[in-house]
Amino acid sequence: MDLLATALPALNDAFGMILQVHVFGYLVLGVCMGLAIGVFPGLGGIAGLSLLLPFMFGMEPLTGLALMVGMVAVVPTSDTFASVLMGIPGSSASQATVLDGFPMAKKGQAARALSAAFAASLFGGLVGAAFLTFFILAARPIVLLFQTPELLMITIFGLSMVGILAGRVAIKGIVAACLGLLFGTIGEGDSAGALRMSTYDMPYLADGLKLVIVGLGIFAIPEIIALLRQDKAISDRAQLGGGWMEGVKDWWANKWLSMRCSLIGVTVGVIPGLGGSVVDWIAYGHTVQTAKDKSQFGSGDVRGVIGPESSNNAKEGGGLVPTLLFGIPGSGSMAIFISAVALLGSGSIEVGPSMLKNNLDFTYAIVWLLALANVVGTLICIAASGGIARLTSIRFALLAPFLFMIISFAAFQSRQDIMDLVALFSIGLLGILMRRFDWSRPAFLIGFVLSNPAETYANQAVQIANSRFRKGFSEGLEYIFSPIVIVLIIITLLSVVIGLRQAKNIMAEGEVQSGSKRAPLVFLLAVIAYIGASYWNAALIPDYSSADRVFPIFVATIGLIGAMILFVQMMIKPETHPLFSDREAQEADLNVYGLWQTLVWFAGLLLLTALAGFIIALTVFLFTFMLVRAQKSVGFAALYTAAGIAFICFMASLLNRDFPPGLLQSVTDMPWPLR
């Protein structure tokens, strides 16, 4: 009864909060933005939330949450367009949809496939929201018992899941997570302020790397570059055909399959680190295994669309469980979500046990917003299907400069420093190489996000444990090995054992063919060099700041051991082994342009920005790109450039933001927006 007495008022308050007109308006805006992001392959919830991050500073908490939840909820629905119409996974959560959705589109049944997918997505999203509602109610008393050792242990559990279940080669996932953790330690240490992998001669790194730049660099830029290199329209099938009601009837006929796959999605979403990388394949496997007639799977069976689409929306509700309850991201998008929540308002809202204790109404507002966003998103997807289908027939060369303009502007807002763009370009290059050689980017990002809490919890736990041991040995043991910690240790060990057995069947970012030994080996050596440098740099921290060297040394040691195991395996394994995955070999026939001749455009934008400022550089970049790379007329290039500059200036004036200055601005007083 006490639970109901606490929860029912919070549920009622949350319901009243989300029914406000301005909150609903922000939710619809977030849904529309998520729809626009999700329709482009690769630009999923991580890239979308990364774009929103700079706008979250000081935003009213409820409207900020509505905007983010609207985007997160609809991306798994809208990415179905790319999977069905293009045969390209819209995101890692829609890979399995391609197997039957794309063959249906080729048969002229695209509308049937999309409507079945939207109905399944709506149902899965509502199941996820319902599960989250009751789970929070039941779990809240337990979560409030969590102290520092418990929070440290669940952080370790999240990292273990990310590392083990990140791809076919489990050790690559672990090393990727370690690399992300080490990137998260760059700058001043939390305990004593010692510098790590940075220097005061370069103040930018002393403050560490910002999540908005890491998120955009690791995920958005690699996908934009990959699509741009192919230099073609996203899809050559703008016609949907008929069968909208037939798809809904298909879902109803398979409603129990949809229910089972939704529960699979919720369960997988709850486990930190799994998320969209595997949920659709698990659901698709269940769909095939439980079907009596398996003959049509892979050639256009609507059940192959309903199963994965039910699970990938439900997993968003499940993914919010570790995110809201423990502050542990259940997926890459949830990692961005955690940091964005901290930026809202005065920073008083923080996901985790404190949110359940102090802001239960906001917790349930997120749940209600998730359910409402699924309904709104599904309706908009159905209404906008015809226009979106035509949008996918536009050459990506016309879209890429606009997307890169938005990304550059978003990255610069983190510190208003030209080095923001240098960091974006550098981390983008790392993201391109990780994507090419099938190194888990979600593992890297979640490692980066968990770096600070993992180090903080570890230091606090050690300090408190030492004081308890001084009082008595039994009291120290009781603090470290509480019943919850023991349960979490057992769960973590089981997850590692099971994960090692299943890792070979998991393709975190799709199947990648093997190439030659040389390129993957060179990349591994570069990773080893960075981890080794991080170890050496941390070891040089003096004794009076020893607390700041323990964590990076420990992580670097694990990373070096894993990397050396990979090195030995590469020496003895044949080139056909998954260790040598290389998308460059796989996509060689698709790529019209080389990597470096594509990157030089964006390097030129960066260099010109440093000399003449962002607006002048962007004007030259957009006009030249349209004229030379997109091969458009002078008139079209001028019109495109004018529209792009007008849009970015409108955004800057609306948000009261400036643009990156260059050397020209330091010697000449220029009017806005040129200054």
TrEMBL record:
Residues annotated as transmembrane: 26-53, 110-139, 151-184, 204-228, 324-345, 365-384, 396-412, 477-500, 520-538, 550-572, 599-627, 634-655
This protein's UniProt keywords: Membrane, Transmembrane, Transmembrane helix
Signal peptide: none
Pfam families: TctA
InterPro entries named in the record: DUF112_TM
Every DUF112 domain range: 26-445
Protein's name in the database: Membrane protein
Organism the protein comes from: Sulfitobacter pacificus
Lineage of origin: Bacteria, Pseudomonadati, Pseudomonadota, Alphaproteobacteria, Rhodobacterales
